[in-house]
């Protein structure tokens, strides 16, 4: 039998069995032959390079070592993450929290929209405090009266259980009265209880004067005991709280016409809209805030104009405007100033009652009416007032099954109402005339600022979660 070696390329041998019709796979054979040729060429070039420069062998060895080391690191990290899910979760959560804080500093409006979407989809219960549905339209105003937390220290890296220091600036803008400041800071240590300290004003002022366009103060928070390292919670949140007494004030117009002229052409509503742009095409009247504060008083009722002897329900809401992050802590008073030609229907449906107070000042009478017979001041009924001023940390709330967080969220929008009627519309009144309502709320508010710190491992005092 003749030998086939050394005389050119060999062809694949196909063994055919009876009935078989297989043919040689020339494409696969050609690829295999090409790969073999390339590998042989590469080996030859490496050999020639090493022969020309023997030190080149160390370059190739170094590349192999680097490749094997990186592969080992990737594999080790992968298996370590699988074995320590708490650490992996903590790293992702921490990165997300840190990223949100940076977005909040650079673009607060966009951060607020992100937070709204987060609550709406993942925590609809907590979205209760952030909604304003059915509250009526509010007229935009330029004047602002509030306190803001600005330039919060971005934190940094701290060793486990080492002192942590955070600084920030407080801005008082157009405040309506002298305001005392109460400041504290809360460090989330990862346990059931947070680490709370009083803020230090140092040489800075701890109160603001009224009627100053803008004034500032500075605080420092020192957490002497620091926080422990935790694999599942690498980033520790810090909450800065500024408490102060605030006031909100709003106005609302109610147009009346005698029923003899309500069906006239042109329609009375169209007549009003020609000179009062606050009235909508559906008859809704915008609320006009005296200034923009952290909480807004918003009126709402049925479509205007109204006629004599018609009972209409007036709704009043005290709600967070969203200008700053914070919470309503306590409602001190909510007063409704009713024009002299209006009677409130004081029955069980009404959340207000007349305590016999009458205001004869020009401001209370408002610009909408010429007479100044005295504006009747209505206050919230005691049972309504107590309902909104419940202590969310009380044993009664805890035993009711309502969490303190949910209780606090439900306090962020206060809705009250009462029916009103006008019996004094003249039969000759064919042109709608307005009566001016006014509402003033006095309350304690807590502004919130946020920061975060990274707790790095301290081998002498570390806590592995």
- Helix amount, in percent? 25-40%
Structural class: alpha+beta
SSE ordering: HHHHEEEEEEEEEHEEEEEEHEHHHEE
**Overall 3D form:** elongated
Biggest β-sheet strands, sense, barrel: 9 strands, mixed
Unreliably modeled segments: 1-21, 119-135, 362-372, 461-465
Number of strands: 18
Mean pLDDT: 78
Distance between the termini: 77 Å
Q: How much of the sequence is in beta strands? A: 25-35%
Rg is: 37 Å
Task: Tell me the number of helical segments per DSSP (H or I, 4 or more residues long).
Answer: 9
What are the main properties of this structure?
31% strand, alpha+beta, disordered C terminus, 18 strands, 9 helices, 9-stranded mixed sheet, disordered N terminus, 465 residues
How would you describe this protein?
It is a single chain. The termini are far apart. The chain has helices spanning 26-52, 56-83, 85-106, 108-122, 268-275, 362-365, 382-388, 395-399, 404-410, and strands at 146-150, 156-159, 164-173, 179-180, 182-187, 195-198, 207-208, 214-223, 235-256, 288-289, 295-300, 312-320, 326-338, 343-345, 352-359, 375-380, 413-421, 433-456. The protein is α+β, with helices and mostly antiparallel strands and 465 residues long. Residues 1-21, 119-135, 362-372 and 461-465 have low confidence and may be disordered. 26% of the residues lie in helices and 31% in strands. β5 and β6 form a beta hairpin. Among the domains are: 32-83; 246-446, no CATH class.
A few lines on this structure:
The protein is of the alpha+beta class and 465 residues long. The protein has helices spanning 26-52, 56-83, 85-106, 108-122, 268-275, 362-365, 382-388, 395-399, 404-410, and strands at residues 146-150, 156-159, 164-173, 179-180, 182-187, 195-198, 207-208, 214-223, 235-256, 288-289, 295-300, 312-320, 326-338, 343-345, 352-359, 375-380, 413-421, 433-456.
């Amino acid at each position: 039998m003749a030998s086939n070696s050394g005389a050119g390329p060999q062809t694949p041998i196909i063994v055919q069995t009876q009935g078989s019709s297989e043919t040689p796979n020339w494409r696969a054979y050609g690829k295999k032959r090409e790969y073999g040729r390339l590998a042989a060429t590469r080996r030859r070039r490496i050999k020639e390079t090493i022969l020309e420069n023997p030190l080149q062998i160390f370059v190739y060895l170094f590349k192999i070592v680097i490749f094997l080391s990186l592969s080992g690191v990737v594999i080790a990290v992968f298996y370590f993450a699988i074995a320590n899910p708490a650490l992996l979760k903590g790293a992702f959560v921490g990165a997300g929290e840190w990223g949100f804080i940076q977005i909040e500093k650079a673009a607060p409006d966009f951060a607020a929209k992100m937070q709204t979407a987060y609550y709406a989809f993942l925590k609809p219960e907590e979205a209760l405090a952030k909604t304003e549905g059915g509250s009526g339209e509010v007229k935009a105003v330029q004047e602002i009266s509030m306190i803001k937390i600005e330039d919060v220290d971005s934190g940094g890296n701290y060793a486990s259980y080492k002192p942590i220091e955070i600084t920030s600036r407080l801005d008082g803008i157009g405040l309506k009265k002298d305001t005392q400041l109460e400041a504290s800071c809360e460090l989330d240590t990862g346990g059931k209880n947070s680490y709370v300290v009083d803020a230090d004003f140092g040489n800075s002022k701890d109160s603001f004067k009224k009627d100053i366009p803008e004034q500032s103060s500075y605080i420092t928070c020192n957490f002497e005991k620091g926080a422990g390292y935790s694999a599942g919670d690498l980033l520790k949140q810090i909450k800065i709280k500024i408490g102060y007494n605030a006031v909100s004030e709003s106005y609302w117009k109610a147009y009346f016409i005698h029923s003899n002229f309500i069906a006239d052409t042109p329609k009375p509503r169209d007549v009003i809209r020609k000179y009062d742009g606050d009235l909508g095409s559906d008859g809704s009247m915008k609320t006009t805030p005296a200034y923009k504060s952290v909480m807004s008083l918003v009126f709402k009722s049925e479509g205007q104009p109204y006629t004599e002897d018609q009972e209409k329900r007036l709704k009043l809401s005290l709600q967070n405007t969203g200008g700053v992050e914070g919470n309503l802590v306590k409602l001190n008073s909510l007063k409704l100033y009713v024009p002299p030609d209006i009677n409130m229907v004081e029955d069980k449906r009404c959340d207000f009652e007349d305590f016999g107070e009458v205001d004869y000042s020009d401001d209370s009478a408002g610009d909408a009416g010429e007479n100044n017979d005295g504006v009747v001041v209505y206050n919230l009924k005691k049972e309504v007032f107590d309902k909104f001023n419940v202590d969310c940390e009380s044993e009664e709330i805890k035993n009711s099954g309502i969490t303190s967080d949910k209780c606090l969220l439900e306090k962020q929008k206060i809705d009250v109402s009462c029916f009103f009627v006008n019996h004094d519309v003249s039969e000759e009144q064919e042109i709608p005339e307005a009566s001016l309502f006014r509402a003033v709320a006095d309350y304690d508010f807590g502004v919130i600022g946020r920061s975060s710190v990274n707790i790095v491992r301290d081998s002498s005092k570390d806590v592995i979660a």
